[in-house]
Every structure is written in C-alpha cells, then in structure tokens.
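Note to self: the last two entries modelled the partners one at a time, which told us nothing about the interface. This time every component goes in together.
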Amino acid sequence: MLPRVFTVAARHEETADTFTLELLAEDAADLAFAPGQFNMLYAFGRGESAISISGDAAEPQRLVHTIRAVGTVTRALAELAPGAQLGVRGPYGTAWPLAAARGRDVVFVAGGIGLAPLRPAILEVLAARRDYGRVVLLYGARTPGDVLYAAEIARWRARGDIEIHVTVDAAGSDWRGNVGVVTQLVRRAGFDAAHALAMLCGPEIMMRYTVVELGRAGMSPNDVHVSLERNMKCAIAFCGHCQYGPEFICRDGPVFPYDRVARWFDAREL
Amino acid sequence: MEIHDLENYLAHHPFFAGLAPEYLALLTGCAGNVTFAAGETVFSQGGTAEHFYLLRDGRVALEFPHPAGNGVVIDTLDAGDVLGASWLVAPYRWPYDARALAPTRALALDAVCLRGKCDADPALGFDLSRRFAAVIVERLHAAELRLTDMYANPASDVSDAAVAAGAGGAA
Ligand SMILES: Cc1cc2nc3c(=O)[nH]c(=O)nc-3n(C[C@H](O)[C@H](O)[C@H](O)COP(=O)(O)OP(=O)(O)OC[C@H]3O[C@@H](n4cnc5c(N)ncnc54)[C@H](O)[C@@H]3O)c2cc1C
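The predicted structure of the combined assembly is written out below.
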C-alpha cells in the first residue's frame, strides 16, 4: 500500500515530549477508521512509525495523531510545522470492542501516552452515552505535566456522566489529585465487575497489574481488552518485527482480548 | 459518633474484617473522631507517631517537605485508606508530612493506648501487625512499580526498564 500524502493543518503541544498533529488529506478523501486502529506515518526520507489514531471517528475528514518523540522517526514527525507534508498508510489493525460494550459498564485504564489510542473509544462512548452503563476512566501519568488532554479531561469530568480518576507517580505540593500507581485506582472506581468490559492501553507492566486488580475486583480476563504497541515495521504481517508469540500485532492486533495474549505478557524473550 | 457507632464503623471497616469482637471493643476504647480542614497538617516529619488514622472521607497527601517550601507528594490516601504505620515500630517517628488536601474526617486510634493493649495481649499485637503488614506490602509493591518509571519506558518489561535507566545514567 502506497502512502497517501497529508498536510499538517494544526499542531498542539501536549507535554514536554508529546504533541498532537491534525492532518488533512491532499486528495481530500476521508480516512474512515474504527477506534483502536493505527496508521503508519511516514516522515519523508526519515522512516515510518506505527501511530494510533487519536481523533474522533465521527470526523474522518480530519486525521488526528498524538505522538511522543522518542527516536528517529517520531522526532522527525515532531519537526513538522503546519503546512508540512507526510505520508500515511492505513488504517490498520483491530478495534476496541465498543459494540460488545453496549449495555455494560465500561472501564478505560490508560497509562502515559496510552490515553491517545483510547481517546477515540472514549469519544464514541460519550457520544452515545445512553447506550452504556457506568463509564470510568482511570489514567496514570508520570507527573502532572505529563497528563495528556488535561483541558479535555476537565470537560469530560464536568459532564458528570463519566467517573474520572487521574493519578501521577509524584507531584509538587500544589497538585490536588491522586499520587500513586493507576492500578490502585481500580478499587476506587464504581462499576459492576460482573457486567463490565475494560479497555487498557499503556505500558505492558501497567496492563499486567491492572488485569490483576480488575480480577481482584471480580472481573474476568475475558472482559479485558488490551492494546499492544510494540514496535513494528511493515504493518502487513510480513517482516515479523512485531511478532508476539504466534500473533502479529499489526495483523491480529493491536487490540487483543487479554486472555489471548496473557501468556506472552509473562514471557521474557519474544 | 457515639461509642456504639465507633464500634460499628470499625467492625465494618475492611481493615478490621474478621477481627474478634472482644478486640473490637478494646480498639474502640482507643479510637476518637478527628477532622482536618483542607490544607491542615495531620502530622509532621520527625514528630512522634501518636496515632494511626482510618480515613472516612477527604484526601490526605504524604509529602517529603523541602526547606525551600516546595515539597514532593509521594502518595495520596482517600476514604477507606489507613494512614500511618510508624506508631508500630520504634522510634515511633513520622517519616514525612501528612496534609489534608480536602476537608477530611477520620478515626484516630491512639498509639500509646494501642501499644499498651498489644503488649498486654500478644495475640492482639500479632493480629494488628499482620493487618498492617498487608497494607505495607501493598504500598511497597505500588512504590516498586513506580520505580520502574514505566511511562518513560512504555514497551518495556521491568528488566528492560532497569537496563534503560542504567544506560541513561551512563550516557
Ligand atoms: C500499534 C501501535 C500504535 C502506536 N501508537 C502510538 C501513538 O499513538 N503515539 C506514539 O507516540 N507512539 C505510538 N506507538 C509507538 C511508536 O510506534 C514508536 O514510539 C515509534 O515507532 C518509535 O520510532 P522512532 O524511530 O521514533 O524511535 P526509534 O529510533 O526506533 O527508537 C527510539 C527509542 O524508542 C523505543 N521504542 C521504539 N518503539 C517503541 C514503542 N512501540 N514503544 C515504546 N518505546 C519504543 C526504542 O526502544 C528506543 O529506545 C505505537 C506503536 C504501535 C505498535
């Protein structure tokens, strides 16, 4: 699949190393996607990276990606100013199980940049709020300055129909929120574990222990879905770069039912 | 809260689940209600640990103070949480400050009273120590998770994170 050319329409700084790009297609065609899917973003001459779509699936004419600058490609993407161009292949991958979540309580658990791939799912649930039971968002970040979408989280909270707990690893004395790991928030959240569905995205170690806490609260691993964001290259199950046991994240994921990948979480070498 | 309500509250608190009724009555004799306004100090680093607290509502920050005034908050506790284990172990000093972040109601259990009762009845001492050990182990595990700095190393396992941290330090 050849990349389509997109132009940066806007750029927002989220945190010290994370930014959001709003992109418009040169061919003006929509890029329809399902929450949870990703694109391969191509910084011309520098390389390609898998980046989840963090925009609103109801607005497919405007592609939104939130990116953390960690290495060659993501730093090249960080240099793109409004008007600059990049290549986009996609969308690829599996989606969050929003249809299966209808009528049930929904628990979103995000860590760090992991809120970005969950954002389209949260937006879709909030847009059809009456189709779901209680909705909870538990979000952990390193420091208050690393909290993504802080203004939007405040707006979600003000709606009163989503329970939100944000925690950080450490904070200055002016922080009024939680300090501690996100796994500890599971206990605070009000949801019916027997009829809930959880969607997790964040560091693997965080997801592993969150599943343990959800289990303690009475939730079955069948009802937990995780997004695995290990590095990948081709995105078409060819190169093996993102192989996770027998699964290719690019073809079979990134969103998996937890029980399908549970044993790979504990494996040392994959 | 009347004595009867205090005993009832303790009996239904998860921290005391399954505690023998005679011990509940003993503990109630050491318990009293306290309230803290937002911003009020619950205890200060270096002070004598004279109580532990069961938080009924509100939020308390545990904070390492800094001479320049800008402390570091290392944990927050909310309704249902147990605050303070230093009353159990000599020299009975608080290792950090505790400060209410919101109006907070709590039950304070008097340490001198409790230690006396534990010394007089080692079975009670053992029971309480075990309950505190469970809380301490859970908090230690949470602190260990934070040590991995997992958000900075999202794709990594603990071992990878340690390597990455080591490599960063050497660079
Ligand atoms: C399905 C999927 C969705 C993703 N969604 C997003 C997203 O929405 N936003 C975002 O910022 N990133 C996302 N990532 C991660 C992103 O693909 C990588 O951070 C990026 O490819 C790194 O490329 P680079 O050339 O910038 O860094 P490199 O130069 O290749 O590596 C630099 C450093 O980053 C580390 N690294 C590489 N890949 C990852 C990874 N997957 N996770 C963590 N650390 C990594 C390397 O170990 C190395 O230490 C996603 C990954 C996958 C597989």
